[in-house]
Amino acid sequence: RPGAAPGLPRVAPLLSSVPATPRSVPARVRGSLPRWLRGSLLRVGPGKFEFGEDRYNHWFDGMALLHQFRIENGSVTYRSKFLQSDTYKANSAQNRIVISEFGTLALPDPCKNIFERFMSKFEMTAMTDNTNVNYVRYKGDYYMSTETNLMNKVDIETLERTEKVDWSKFIAVNGATAHPHYDPDGTAYNMGNSYGSQGSCYNVIRVPPEKVDLGETIHGAQVICSIAPTERMKPSYYHSFGMTKNYIIFIEQPLKINLWKIITSKIRGKAFSDGISWEPQYNTRFHVVDKRTGQLLPGMYYSKPFISFHQINAFEDQGCIVIDLCCQDDGRVIDAYQLQNLRKAGEELDQVYRSVARSFPRRFVLPLDVTVNTPEGETLSPLSYSSASAVKQADGKIWCTHENLHGEDLEEQGGIEFPQINYGQFSGKKYRVFYGCGFRHLVGDSLIKVDVVNKTLKVWREDGFYPSEPVFVPVPGTNAEDGGVILSVVVTANQKDSNFLLVLDARTFEELGRAEVPVPMPYGFHGTFVPM
Ligand SMILES: *[C@@H]1O[C@H](CO)[C@@H](O)[C@H](O)[C@H]1NC(C)=O
Ligand SMILES: *[C@@H]1O[C@H](CO)[C@@H](O)[C@H](O)[C@H]1NC(C)=O
Ligand SMILES: [Fe+2]
């Protein structure tokens, strides 16, 4: 079985609580870091998994720990702080889990009497502001984001929270993804669901780039398009979406949010995660929205069921949209990432790993100009460089079949996730290269550079070390797509070894240097580089 590494070493130490390191500590640099590399790598992920006797159930539930690696003159300093969210403060003050998270239902206060405890089952669940997924940028400011209606604005120098922002106070949405897209002028696009008496909608959101006249935070945000789900009470879960110069591409995948289950979860004593289910009797559907007019295009694009957490890139070519995604054929992945599973060992841990479908990069081609006169039964893609097809059926739907953007060698790496590109120069454009983490384990265990044109790989790996999402930083004054470095935070469960910030030459994928930090760090989610 390709990609299955028997006898996986335990990763439990990488998914355990650590203390924060609020005062900068110097890193020990080996090799040499380029002099032009000046700025901060900011990362976030869960760093605290219990309060008092209460424990979180799911990896996604842990309290947001903010990491900052400052790089200047070839040296590196590190610090970290727990995000001072309302959730973190309330849990700390009461030394128990007060606010429910994705996989953990907060229990009623044991100090309340029986009647009060009974009644609290009927109160609305307070939404968490434990924004532990990503740093996002609106109007030049940084916010910590998860997928709820709440974001926390942070000072990226001090890592202190400065403001809590609620999407639903500005526009009719109940949340937004932690993976917005940005136009070159700073206009941000995102997507979020709204839940109302009519059921739910998927909404495309635009946030203007300027504060002048439009106000601070996300004033001026607009819903530019609302898309009705196939089933109003069972909208799809999505973690990101695609964007080209002119279009937003939304993927409605058969990972469903059962709103009845969510509404009744507290009474039934279940967490939100209980309301999400993989329903492969539905196909995956693509929706395309014109960014300028907010119009939903009439094309009904379908493919066999898959799920995608992270999109790689998308662009327009010869009347088509080309969209590249990391895809899994089975959506039963969320349960595997329960902490009790991740903390297993030996054969039991191997079983968890085998239960998760590997993630592979795939290309879909969506022809834009589809009318009643479009012929049926033949591929509508004119693209000579892609074997992806799109065929109109008798019912008018366009059936899309993907092209694999990889060879067998990627199967040996356990597939790829956490894709990143040279976003500044190549987002929404025809491109050649992306980077990601190989997954021969339940967390990333290698860094991989994929050439999507000739489908070749370059791999960095060291046994016992787990690299995070690779962040590309361009060298000033070059147009080469891979002219720059890759930054990744590499963590280990070995007591005698240090975690480190790794710097690779993005072109050759050779190590330039590493900055060892003698501080425990858990495996995290996402990050960004802010130049100085
Ligand atoms: C880096 O070098 C510049 C110029 O030599 C100097 O002004 C600056 O203080 C140095 N910064 C650090 C953190 O050493
Ligand atoms: C694939 O393309 C890259 C350029 O991105 C080149 O360096 C490499 O040699 C090519 N490999 C093959 C096998 O064609
Ligand atoms: Fe993500």
TrEMBL record:
Pfam families (alphabetical): RPE65
Record text on cofactor binding: Binds 1 Fe(2+) ion per subunit.
InterPro entries: Carotenoid_Oase
Gene Ontology BP annotations: carotene catabolic process; regulation of mitochondrial membrane potential; regulation of reactive oxygen species metabolic process; retinal metabolic process; xanthophyll catabolic process
Binding positions for Fe cation per the UniProt entry: 179, 239, 310, 526
Subcellular location: Mitochondrion
Requisite cofactors: Fe(2+)
Keyword field contains Coiled coil: no
Catalytic EC class: oxidoreductase
Keyword match Metal-binding: yes
Keyword terms of this UniProt record: Dioxygenase, Iron, Lipid metabolism, Metal-binding, Mitochondrion, Oxidoreductase
Any one GO CC term of the record: mitochondrion
GO molecular function, one term: beta-carotene 15,15'-dioxygenase activity
Domain of life: Eukaryota
Enzyme Commission designation: 1.13.11.71
Free-text function comment from the UniProt entry: Broad specificity mitochondrial dioxygenase that mediates the asymmetric oxidative cleavage of carotenoids. Cleaves carotenes (pure hydrocarbon carotenoids) such as all-trans-beta-carotene and lycopene as well as xanthophylls (oxygenated carotenoids) such as zeaxanthin, lutein and beta-cryptoxanthin at both the 9,10 and the 9',10' carbon-carbon double bond. Through its function in carotenoids metabolism regulates oxidative stress and the production of important signaling molecules.
UniProt record similarity statement: Belongs to the carotenoid oxygenase family.
Protein name per UniProt: Carotenoid-cleaving dioxygenase, mitochondrial
Native organism: Cavia porcellus
Lineage, top ranks: Eukaryota, Metazoa, Chordata, Craniata, Vertebrata
Gene this protein is translated from: BCO2
